[in-house]
Amino acid sequence: MSGTYQKLLELDLNTGHLHISAIDPAYTRDYVGGSALAARLFFNTCDPAVDPIDPANPLFVMTGPLVGTTFPGSSRFVVCARSPLTGLWGESASGGTFGAELKKAGLDGIVIRGRAESPSYLLIENEAVTLQDADSIWGLDTYAAIDALNAKHGSKPPVRVLTIGPAGENLVKFAAIGNDKAHYFGRTGMGAVMGSKNLKAIVVRGSGKVPLADPAAFKEVRQATLAAIKDSMIGESFHALGTAAAMDMGMMTGDVPIKNWSKGVDYEMADALGGPALEENLLKKRGFCFACPIGCKPVVEVLSDQYPVALGPGPEYETCASFGTMIMNNDLAAVAHVNTLCNRLGLDTITCGATVAFIMEAYEKGLLSAQDTDGLEMTWGNMAAVVALVQKIAQRDGFGDRAAEGSQALAEALGSEALEFAVTVKGLEPPMHDPRAYHGQGLAYMMSNRGACHLQHSVQAIEQGMVSWEEAGLEEDYPSTSSDGKAQMVVIAENIGQMANAACVCHFVHWAMGLSNLLNGFNAVTGLGFDLNQFLETGRRAWVLKRAINNILGATSLDDRLPQRILTPLPDGGSEGTVPDEALMKREYYQIRGLDEKGRPTPDLLRETGLMFVAEKF
Ligand code: SF4
Question: Which amino acid residue places its CA nearest to atom 2 of ligand 1?
Answer without folding.
Answer: 296
